[in-house]
Amino acid sequence: MGKTLPGWAVSEEESVRSEAAPYIEMTPSDRLRVLAAVCRAAGKLFRSRTDAEVALSYVDPLPASSVAALERLRSEHRKP
């Protein structure tokens, strides 16, 4: 038996839909303005860190499956 949400709560699906609603109808120029604001905020966040250089230079390691796939593709590409 599923739990019933309290009257003030909405489902996860509705919560996501309402949160995304303003962005769905945005024009490309409006999306660009939002993206620029996010980039400025990220820049401020990184500049506030004492380890900004380390944080900015971090690269997520590829999973072993991706490394293997890249090696296979490179090998196939080099074949005459």
Topology:
Elements: H1 12-24, H2 28-47, H3 52-57, H4 64-78
Number of domains: 1
Largest sheet: none
Radius of gyration: 22 Å
Strand proportion, as a percent range, falls in: under 5%
Poorly predicted sequence stretches spanning 5 or more consecutive residues: none
The end-to-end distance, rounded to whole angstroms, is 62 Å
**N-to-C order of helices and strands:** HHHH
Q: What level of helicity do the residues show?
A: 55-70%
Number of strands: 0
Secondary-structure content class: mainly alpha
Mean pLDDT: 91
Shape descriptor? extended
Treating each run of at least 4 consecutive H or I residues as one helix, how many helices? 4
Q: Would you mind describing this structure in some detail?
A:
The structure is a single chain. This protein is 68% helix and 0% strand. The protein is mainly α and 80 residues long. The protein has one domain. The N and C termini lie far apart (62 Å).
List keywords for this structure.
80 residues; mainly alpha; 68% helix
Quick structural gist:
By secondary structure, this protein is mostly helical. The protein has one domain (about 10-80).
